[in-house]
Specification:
The chain is of the alpha+beta class. 34% of the residues lie in helices and 25% in strands. It contains 15 helices and 23 strands. The strands form 6 sheets. Strands 3-2-6-9-10-12 form a 6-stranded mixed beta sheet, sandwiched between helices. The protein has a 6-stranded antiparallel beta sheet with strand order 14-15-16-17-18-19, with helices on one face. It has a 4-stranded antiparallel beta sheet with strand order 20-21-22-23. Helix 1 packs parallel to helix 7 and helix 7 packs across helix 8. 25% of the residues are buried.
Length: 572
């Protein structure tokens, strides 16, 4: 285990393309347990438990290098910033050569936090995006930004209600209000504004935080760190591979079980979540690059490949798994088709018997007698088994041949067979369409927002494209007009019955598709024609219903409409 080593690895990573395999990972665990009394923030004794659980989990993986701060020390914003800068320069990045020493980065934060920042011992706030900017060289290094996977895990629900209790930043009265306002203004800018200034479209990063409905409760203090450590420790001790998407799913399941034991709402949320980072593979098998430091490196024989796997072998493993999944899907589709076919056959039996029981005239009774003479007992399986043309169709769709028809000529036979065939097809298509069982029911229900009923330039519509047992495909479209330009934003979403699993999301602006991916993210930001477009997906657990919110330049779509209406609509 490399948890006690203070020297970085001698190997370097190129990071010239997106790193998909985390087999050389730098882990930085930061905790703040002590706080100044004048801030009125209580000390956190269980921060040491977070650090120890992280150490044991990542220590079980030989591909992880773990470094921790002194959590019993009191940390200010400047001292914490300096610690992260030293960690970047000493462990992750070699400024003299420009080489990156690891192919993945994990930062864990434990302590009192707000929605966007960690609270230091003196009450100052250090935003998560500012920490992320340190490890991207202030968003200037493209390899660190777009190719190095960066994870920040924040366990910040520790029983302090920062919304109700104002934080005293200084014990002395000498601090001016201007200094406080300047410090606070640094954290009002979100990541989207920073990326818009830098013209960056891809961060390849993730900021995952714990969220509690009751801020002053310590019921869930340390739950995120403990459950995450248990998941990773179990995977690393078995020396198996796991992708980040599966880690998040397992963590959600454990958090949901933990929240069932209390009346307080508790969950995890993402401040930043690049969709490409879901496919990053964590491997606990020692990589070839780490073993290259040995004095006489030799390629391992095929029998020893279980000891270590290089990146090429992991890619082959991923491809093989994808092929296996495709085969399983094909087999499942075949099973579904045969199941629907058998179901239609049984319904045909029932409907045929029901029709035969209702109001039979003399001719129908004679036909039944002829059928029983030709094909056996009425209502038995022989009615279907002796018909060579279509053995699985309902018997009431056939006019069986009488003895006179059997004596007729071959030309007459062929004509009668063709006429019965067409009649059978027409009856199937027109009269008895209820016997078909489509996999997806096509629906075109469009619901428009009544707020925009008097305008053409502004609108919000929700259209249900299709429904099935497991998902509902919807399309949401917004129309708006800014700076004398009309725009349309279309968002397609596959609503799964389980809202926390991966689902397809498609974004189009002005008829042009921007991206289409499967993801668990609930917020998306795009820069288009000088405007920042932000779409948020919200889910109501009580009503089991999705809702969608559009913001343009950090302002709601309806607020822009109200401004436009005041300027352009006049009431006489």
């Amino acid at each position: 285990k490399r948890t006690t080593s203070n020297e970085p690895l001698t190997t370097t990573m190129s990071c010239t393309k997106k790193e998909k395999t985390a087999n050389n990972c730098l882990v930085i665990c930061v905790g703040i347990a002590k706080y100044e009394k004048y801030t009125k923030m209580p000390d956190i004794n269980d921060v040491k438990d977070d650090i120890s659980s992280y150490k044991s989990a990542f220590g079980a993986n030989p591909n992880c290098e773990v470094h921790c701060n002194d959590f019993d020390k009191k940390w200010t914003e400047k001292s914490l910033l300096k610690y992260f800068e030293n960690a970047f320069n000493q462990y992750l990045f070699d400024s003299s050569t420009g080489n990156i020493k690891y192919n993945s980065l994990i930062i864990t934060l434990s302590g009192h936090c707000t929605e966007t920042a960690i609270l230091c011992s003196n009450g100052q706030q250090l935003s998560f995006t500012k920490i992320l900017s340190i490890f991207t060289q202030q968003w200037e290094n493209p390899n660190l930004i777009a190719n190095l996977p960066k994870f920040i895990f924040v366990d910040g629900q520790r029983g302090f209600d920062y919304l109700s209790n104002p934080i005293n930043l200084s014990n002395s009265s000498s601090s001016s209000e201007d200094e406080k306002n300047n410090d606070q203004s640094l954290y009002e800018r979100d990541l989207a504004e920073i990326l818009m200034e830098k013209n960056i479209m891809d961060t390849y990063s993730c900021i995952m935080c714990s969220v509690s409905g009751v801020l002053d409760s310590t019921a869930y203090s340390g739950q995120l760190s403990w459950n995450l450590s248990q998941i990773l420790k179990g995977v690393f001790e078995k020396q198996t591979d796991i992708i980040f998407y599966d880690i998040v799913n397992k963590l959600r399941q454990r958090i949901n079980k933990a929240s069932d034991y209390s009346d307080y709402q508790f969950s995890i949320d993402f401040i930043e979540h690049d969709m490409d980072i879901d496919d990053v593979i964590y491997t606990s098998k020692q990589s070839m690059q780490l073993k290259a430091a040995s004095p006489s490196p030799q390629p391992p024989p095929p029998s020893l490949m279980s000891v270590g796997m290089d990146e090429a072998q992991l890619k082959k493993l991923v491809k093989q798994r994808k092929k296996e999944k495709k085969k399983e899907k094909k087999e499942q589709k075949k099973l579904n088709k045969t199941g629907r076919f058998k179901r239609s056959r049984s319904l045909g039996h029932l409907m045929g018997n029901m029709d035969n029981k209702k109001g039979k005239d003399k001719k129908s009774k004679k036909r039944d007698k002829q059928k029983s003479n030709l094909f056996g007992t009425k209502g038995s399986d022989n009615d279907f088994g002796n018909n060579k043309k279509s053995p699985l169709s309902p018997k009431r769709f056939f006019k069986h041949r009488t003895q006179s028809l059997v004596k007729s000529s071959s030309l007459r036979k062929s004509k009668s067979l063709n006429s019965r065939k067409h009649q059978h097809e027409n009856q199937l298509n027109d009269k008895h369409s209820a016997l078909a069982f489509p996999e997806n029911e096509e629906i075109n229900d469009i619901v428009r927002d009544p707020i925009f009923k008097d305008t053409i330039e502004w609108d919000k519509s929700t259209e249900i494209l299709s429904k099935s047992k497991d998902k509902t495909r919807v399309k949401i479209q917004w129309l708006f007009k800014l700076k004398k330009k009309s725009h349309s934003v279309t968002f397609n979403h596959s609503q799964k019955t389980n809202p926390y699993i991966k689902a397809k999301r498609v974004l189009s602006i002005n008829g042009k598709q921007i991206w289409s991916q499967k993801s668990t993210a609930t917020q998306f930001t795009e820069l288009y024609d000088g405007n920042k477009i932000t779409i948020s997906i919200e889910y109501d657990d009580d009503q089991k219903q999705f809702s969608y919110v559009l913001k343009i330049n950090n302002k709601l779509h309806t607020e822009h409409f109200n401004d436009w209406q005041r300027q352009n609509m006049f009431v006489e």
